[in-house]
Structures are given as C-alpha cells and as structure tokens.
Design a protein that fits this description.
alpha/beta; seven-stranded parallel sheet; four-stranded antiparallel sheet; 10 helices; 11 strands; 17% strand
C-alpha cells in the first residue's frame, strides 16, 4: 500500500538517458529525462512518459514539492521508503528473493535481435505500431532465422482492433503460432472492455489501463513505477490471468525497483508471475549505473550494495533540494 507523503525534505538529481532509437510507437525522441529522488536515506526514480499520459517531469516534480504527488511520484516515495529502511539495516532488498527471468525488450534493430539470442533470451518483446508493414517483415524474417524465439508485440495503444487483425494476418500461420501475446492492441479510451483473445486467438495483455479495464483479457502487465501490485495480483489470481512485471524503461534504479517488486510477487504468488520484462538497461547508452547491472541477459542481476544497490554511485551524484 502506498503511504501518504509526509514532510521529509526531498533532494533530486536530474538525469537523461539516451536510446539508440525511439522506444515506442507513440514517441520519436531518443533522449529521455527523469529524476532520482533522495528522501529519509532512501532513493527512487521518477521517469515520466508524457506520450503515454504522464505529466511531464517538471510538472511531476512541482506537484511533488507542493504535496500533490502524481501516481509516479507516489510510487517513487514508496520505493524510497523501502530502500531507505534496507539501507539503514545495511541489507539488500533482494536478500532471500529470486527475481523472475525476463524477455528481451527490443526495437526493430537487427543487431539487437542477434545479441538477445546470443545472450540466451527465449522471448522477444517488440514495440510495434509505427510502420506496420516494415515491422511485419522484420518479425517474419527473424522468426524464420530463430524459430525457437517466442514474440510479444506491444502496440502502445496506437492501432484499432481492425488494424491489429490485418497486421496479424500478414504474419502468416507459422509466425502467429510463435506469438505469446499482444499488448495494448486497441486505441486508448475507446472501450472499457478488452477480450481475452484477439484475431487468430492470440492472447491479449493490458498495460496502461490495467487497474480499470473490464473483460476477460488474459495477461495483466504490472509496472511498479505506476501500479500498486497487490490488488492486481489478487485480481489475477481470482480470475485466472497471467501477470507480467515490467520496468518503466527508466533509470537502472527504477528498473531495480520493478525487479524487487517482481521478486516479492514471485515469492508470494509463485507461478502466477510469468516471464517478465525487467531487463531494459541495454536499450540505453551505457553509463556507470547500467554497467552495475551487467550485460543484459534473461536473469536480472541486482547491483551490489544495500537497499536497491548502487551505494557509491548514488552518494557521488550532485543532489539539489526539491523546491
């Protein structure tokens, strides 16, 4: 459960991550701004995606400073509380936990697919919806080259169900059989109801509207940066849905928070938690924080240190009071 926001002083460190290409169909940018927060000895990450409905970073921080936190800021506060408590006890939040394995999160980049296969990933999640014909050709090519690879396709709410059905039809029977699920394969705010299966009986996952959507959808995507996991896990258990935890494609500290929440859920809910999407630091240009997580591979390797890790790196950053 998220706490109320008390009056502890907050310090921030603004950062920018740079990706090799755009990271979803709703965005063309390759520079991604966020802020780490430090409060009461704990650290967390705030990384808005305005293209997907978040307030921008400046507005998010201003609302936090005024005591009116957005959902992202509220979750970051919770993260900082958990992280700070573990740091005071000089322990890692990951002690005694096992992080679920992850799919590879990819863009339509030849080298990225080959690298993911070489690293041992068995599932590839691909962002689609910008150039459907080229994306279909890309999937057909690499599904043929790597027949063992399963696919998850994320449309980011850019396409109607009719467009999605046409797209799936162009993939062919053999490729469609390799699709684990499609995600957000409908226009946002068009219907509160999402069916369990799309065209060709392919399972449907829900991400952005996961708390409010109705229907028999098959997979709940939980992003700890935005979502409180426990109510979604309880609903999934009751309704027989699969659950996939993913990062918010944010700073490695935020990625680590998502991995910790996934590990907690795995311990309490076992097989309900499917292969996740927690390994996303490889999407960005490397820095000391991405290097601390190691080479992207299916297993998530927490950074050394207390709390969520990165002790020396976090201590060395320039911090300014949030005003």
């Amino acid at each position: 459960m998220n706490p109320s926001i008390p009056s502890h002083p907050i310090s921030i460190h603004r950062y920018a991550l740079r990706s090799k290409t755009s990271l979803n169909a709703g965005s063309t940018r390759c520079e991604h701004h966020g802020a780490l927060i430090r409060v009461d000895g704990g650290y967390a990450c705030i990384h808005p995606w305005p293209e997907l409905g978040d307030e921008d970073l400046d507005r998010t921080l201003a609302l936090l400073a005024s005591g009116k936190p957005t959902p992202l800021a509220r979750r970051a506060w919770y993260c900082a509380q958990m992280d700070g408590a573990a740091r005071r006890d000089a322990i890692s939040l990951f002690d005694g936990l096992v992080v679920p394995e992850s799919h590879a999160t990819l863009t339509t980049d030849d080298a990225a697919v080959r690298s993911a296969v070489e690293a041992g990933f068995e599932i590839a999640k691909l962002k689609v919806g910008r150039h459907l014909a080229q994306e279909a050709a890309f999937i057909r090519e690499y599904a043929g080259q790597f027949p063992h690879l399963a696919w998850r396709l994320d449309f980011n709410g850019t396409q109607s169900p009719e467009s999605v059905a046409v797209f799936l039809g162009t993939l062919g029977d053999e490729v469609r059989q390799k699709i684990d699920f499609i995600e957000d394969a409908y226009l946002p705010n068009t219907s509160p109801w999402v069916d369990a299966l799309a065209a060709y009986d392919i399972p449907v996952a829900v991400d952005r509207e996961v708390e409010d959507v109705c229907g028999g959808y098959g997979i709940a995507v939980i992003k700890p940066a935005r979502n409180i996991p426990e109510p979604l896990l309880a609903r999934a258990a009751e309704e027989g849905k699969r659950v996939v935890f993913t990062s918010y494609m944010d700073h490695p500290l935020g990625q680590s928070f998502a991995a910790w929440e996934a590990a907690v859920a795995r311990k309490s809910h076992g097989s309900l938690v499917s292969t996740c999407g927690l390994v996303t630091h490889g999407l960005f240009e490397p820095d000391a924080f991405t290097e601390a997580l190691g080479k992207p591979e299916p297993s998530f390797h927490p950074a050394a240190g207390t709390g969520l890790g990165f002790d020396e790196l976090l201590a060395a950053l320039p911090w300014t009071p949030l005003k």
